[in-house]
Amino acid sequence: MQLSFSDSKVVDISDKESYCKKFYNGLLQAQALANIGHWELDLINNSLYWSDEVYRIFGLEPQEFEATYEAFLKYVHPEDRDIVDEIYKKSIKEKHGYFVEHSIVRKDGEIRFVEERCEHEFDSDGNPIKSIGIIHDITKRKNAENELILASTVFEKMNDGVLITDDKQRIIAINSSYSKISGYSFDEVKGKTPNTFSSGWHDANFYKDLWEKLNKEAQWSGEIIDRRKNGELYTAELNIIALYNKDAKLTNYISIVNDISEKKQKDSLIHNLAYFDALTELPNRVLLQERVTSKIRALKRNSKKIALLFIYMDNFKNINDTFGHFTGDKFLIEVAKSIKSIIRQEDTLARLGGDEFTIILEEVESISDASHVAQKIIDRFKEPVIINSKEFYTGASIGISIYPEDGENYEELVKAAYTAMYHVKESGKNGYQFYTQSMNDKITKKTLIENDLRSAITELSHLIL
Fold it and tell me: Where do runs of H (alpha helix) occur along 234-383?
């Protein structure tokens, strides 16, 4: 006997029964490999036949199953049971096949997803006599789809911007948050590289270090300044992840972006309020102390000196009282600009409050360096300060202390410079003096005398009463 197949091969069969058994076993193996089983429902006797793979899909043994349509429905998930039954009955009524996806509940409680395809046989009178179908376990595919949907939802709903490129850094996806941050739509950046957003702010070394770490550790995080579509610069926290497949081949880069521009602005505002004078925008007393303390620590290692100039603006009170606070504020702003134009960029000019300013002169070689700056300030204010076309005359009384001769910390240096400034004021104003111990002795003696006089007056008043 010979059997002919579509591939034109001819097989000699000596034992038909052996061949059919072998063919049937091969079919079962193919079904198992594909997770596809077949079934037949005899509508005359309501008897249901399941192949071995169907039993495996449902997690049942043949002896555990009644092999009826109603028994099958019991294992369909309760949420899908009515839908499956309705589709099946409708297809018989309308005499056509059907396709349906639904979930089942196995004997052990595990939920799986399947898809079914079915066709019907009818007799000569059009009555249904048999349903023949296949059932395919699609649990892995559905789980993957659900994970993909979940990932897609998370991707789209994330507050952080997400940008995905291929291994050549060509953009293949961005989420709506990234569009909102950058101002670009996906169509505008598709196929381009992230250089599209480059601000030009960072140098070659920055990107060299970034790529070295990314290639070595498969991840980089840090702050970066990029440019929006409208040209505006923004600061972002950026986390880049390099993805590799199971063969260790690079497949994608994922960039997660958090726009921190507003936070940076708030941090800057808080920093300015804490460390800078609101009127002149100069460092305030707090920042001055930090800088002096920091510089002293450095100077202890290299034996260099700094000079601290304490400046009192003569006649400011009269200007402020006569012309008002608005003019007084403008006067102080102009004074700050004038003094700042005299000192070096590395030096610090601070406003302590009111009409008092302080300068830190760095790396002073000799006292003549400090006296030179002090004299330039005094000379500047021999000329009037112009405010709204009006001339205001002032002067500067300046006291100078030197580290480490006049003090080894911030408090001692400020006290010494203030004492020297006070001596200038007592001597007629508009000049400068270096601190000497005798100045301190004189002020101390004067303070003690004043305290004694106050005590004496208080005691005398008590005696009179």
Answer: 261-275, 285-302, 316-323, 325-342, 367-380
Q: How wide is the angle at C-alpha 253 spanned by C-alphas 252 and 254, nearest 5°?
A: 120
Burial 242-251 (b: 16+ CB within 10 A, else e): beeeeeeeee
Instruction: Give the three-class secondary structure for 440.
Output: helix
How far apart are the C-alpha atoms of 64 and 66, rounded to whole Å? Answer: 7
Residue with tokens 């709903």: 157
Name residue 348's amino acid. Answer: T
Amino acid (1-letter code) at residue 223: E
Tell me the DSSP string of 194-218: GGGGB-S-S-HHHHHHHHHHHHHHS
- Give the closest residue to 104 by CA, choosing from 72, 134, 133, 65: 72
CA-based nearest residue to 354, from 321, 386, 379: 321
Count of other CB atoms within 10 angstroms of residue 422: 19
d(C-alpha 46, C-alpha 68), whole Å: 6
Going from the N-terminus, what domains does the chain have, and what CATH number goes with each?
17-143 (3.30.450.20), 158-264 (3.30.450.20), 278-434 (3.30.70.270)
**Which residue numbers in the chain have pLDDT < 50?**
1-10, 13, 23
Beta strands in 355-423 (DSSP E): 356-361, 385-387, 390-392, 395-403
Q: Compute the chain's Rg from CA coordinates.
A: 45
What pLDDT does 7 receive?
47
Instruction: Give the pTM.
Output: 0.49
How do strand 306-314 and strand 171-174 relate by DSSP bridges?
unpaired
Judged by DSSP in three states, 131 sits in strand
What's the pLDDT at 456? Answer: 60
Structure confidence at residue 126 (pLDDT): 92
Helix (H, G, I), strand (E, B) or coil at 240: strand
Tokens for 459, please give them: 């005691």
Distance CA 37, CA 30 (A): 9
3-class state of residue 457 by DSSP: helix
